[in-house]
Amino acid sequence: MELSMSGGALRTFSRCVTCLARIGSDLVFQAYPDKLELHTLNSSRSAFASVSLTRDFFDHFHLPADAYADAAPSSTPLQCSVLLKSVLAVLRTPTSAIDRLNASLPNPQASKLEFVIHCVSGRKKTHRISCSAESDVQTLALDRNGFPSRLAIRPRDLTRLLSNFQSSLQELTVIATEPAARLPGVDDGTGGKAVELLSYIDPTKDDYDSRLHTQLWIDPAEEFLEYEHAGDPVDVTFGVKELKAFLTFCEGCEVDILLFYQKAGEPVLLAPRFGFDDGSSSNFDVTLVLATMLVSQLNDGSVPQQPPTSAHHAEEPRAAAAAPSPVPENVSNHTRIWSELSGLTPKSFEANAENRAQKERNGRANVLNDTSVLPNTNAPCKLPVTYNANYIEQPVQMDHLEEPPG
Amino acid sequence: EAWVQGAGMSSSTTSGQGQGDEAPDLVCVVDCVHGMVDALSCVRWNKHQGAVVELSEHGIVVTVEESGCLQAKVYLKTELFAEYDYGAEGRPRFGLSLGLLVDCLNMFTVPGFASPVGIRYPGPDMQLLLRSVGSPDACIHAEIRTRIPDTVAWDYHFEHAGNTPVTFTVKSAILKESIDDLEWPGSSIQIHFHPDPPSVIFKGEGHGDLEIEFSYYANTDLLIAFQCDQELSYRYKYKFLRATTSNVPSSVLKENRGSKVTIGRGGMLKIQHLVSVARLGTQSYHNFAGGAQQPSRIAFIEFFVKPEEDD
């Protein structure tokens, strides 16, 4: 495999690597006749990021013909795996100082992947990184058309929304409902907040009380470029670190963010939104698949009966959890329901904390396993992964609800 | 000058120990302390380093070394000083802490109080005396204890490898960046001179390999000078190589100065930098390739690195 890139493509490549490096530690290169794919999987197997670069992305793209049994794109790709921090070391040279970057892997069994940087100054830097040509690599392919719901948002708008949350927040819950119908006489500023963002804090952790809990109600018409959701409210809870890595990537490439989702436990898919034709004109694409928490914040049975303004919990230290809900009087039933749920009172929460904690221990499996299922099946809540062979790690967290694979 | 004979300084004249009868070895005035600090900081790769200072009628030389493998010299010629009165016979040498000297000089560069510094050696107790001069209203006074240098300074006579020197000159900023890049493979760096086609390659091997090639024909600006009539290749410990550029002052990088790299007989590596010690009020200038418009206002820095022994 021999590649060469420069200019804008090089900058995009650098951003891709930076994004992937914030998610996983190993980078898998897969070279097909018509494209190069880069993948990484995080250590807890809850995030899978994939970059696809077509031939046109590169100034020069050459694969030896004999690397393939046949020329079909589906044939076994030429692949190798390197440490992301090694690739980051290569890209430490600022792209503005680089005339062009060449990458080459002489043969599938080569032990080193070579990067040659031709600097503007005239220097030539040659990096050789040890790689392992693992024959068994996991990949993940989700059809974005298989998701019932989606939203699109500008990176700067998402940054602004996320800035309301504690910067150390690890997980975020997105609750999506049908956009409220525009009711006559309703003040536009208060109605129709069909989406909620909630900080998710693990209730079993000791610092639960001292963490900042934040809830944000959003009008999709104001904040999102697109919003499609029909039917019952759903919630998805996923990692913020990976979301922010993807956000930074989209910001750098000046593209908007698409989020595809289904429901709690099913993975979410993030992708850049290239214009209106869904990426067909772009020579690169990035997808991020995040596993979501099995436990839904909506349906876990800990629905409090008291409204959030109840007075008898005034002495509880966790009063911060019950932010006053700005629910106006004449909103849809759906909106009211989930606002009450999210405005959990400390007293009821305490009663349900143990219940919730037990469910956490049982059901907390943001884990990829080897069940090759599509998102719209009834299999419990794993990131589906297709395998070529036995490259399987033990899931970090056991899930008692998990059905046996296969 | 007034302060040599003035009150407070001349207890020795009345002490009866006889020192008051002798003129000091050196009395000088530095008018750009900041530049002096830059030059001395260039050779400060460790927090605690002992230096040997040698005085002569040509100027001051400060030598620092480590482990017998790395040595650096700072040449401060008389032209750098506003005044330089040398009164010794022979060449007095003394040891002191380089860090103390630099930190002490830094005290005189307090903003709003940038005045020339007078330096005198020896004091009554063989110490180095420093004093701000030029302001009638206030004075900063310092003294630094010196010691007899423990060992004879490693005085290496650099010899060229062959009939002609094997050397190249490149912008200091690029040399520094290259050595910084080589931190990634680390440990041991090979420098390879190639006469034809003319190029120099720095190579490091570790958990990953990195090769940096400076090719004479790649870009007319890259190698400012190149001379090599034989193929040469030696290895050096990365941490010593790193010390030669890690503290290059930013003025050197901004002024686009060049650094000269030479390999001598036996593989001894010599790296030379130029640091400007401009007079107060002199306009700063930018001169490509390091040619100084006022050569007398330059401090010369030399690093020597011994090669690693081949197994």
UniProtKB/TrEMBL annotation, chain A:
Any one of the GO CC terms: checkpoint clamp complex
SUPFAM superfamilies hit by this protein: DNA clamp (SSF55979)
Entry-linked Pfam families: Rad9
Gene Ontology biological process terms from the UniProt entry: cellular response to ionizing radiation; DNA repair; DNA replication checkpoint signaling; mitotic intra-S DNA damage checkpoint signaling
Annotated spans, Disordered: 300-331
Recorded family membership: Belongs to the rad9 family.
Protein name (Swiss-Prot/TrEMBL): Cell cycle checkpoint control protein RAD9A
Organism: Aegilops tauschii subsp. strangulata
TrEMBL record, chain B:
Key words, A-Z: DNA damage, DNA repair, Nucleus
Entry-linked InterPro entries: Cell_cycle_checkpoint_Rad1, DNA_clamp_sf, Rad1_Rec1_Rad17
Nucleus listed as a keyword: yes
Compartments in which it is found: Nucleus
Signal peptide range in chain numbering: none
Annotated GO CC locations: checkpoint clamp complex
GO biological process, one term: DNA damage checkpoint signaling
Region (Disordered) location: 1-21
UniProt-listed Pfam families: Rad1
Predominant subcellular localization, coarse grouping: nucleus
Compositional bias annotation for Low complexity: 1-16
PANTHER family (alphabetical): CELL CYCLE CHECKPOINT PROTEIN RAD1 (PTHR10870)
Family: Belongs to the rad1 family.
Protein name per the record: Cell cycle checkpoint protein RAD1
Originating species: Aegilops tauschii subsp. strangulata (Goatgrass)
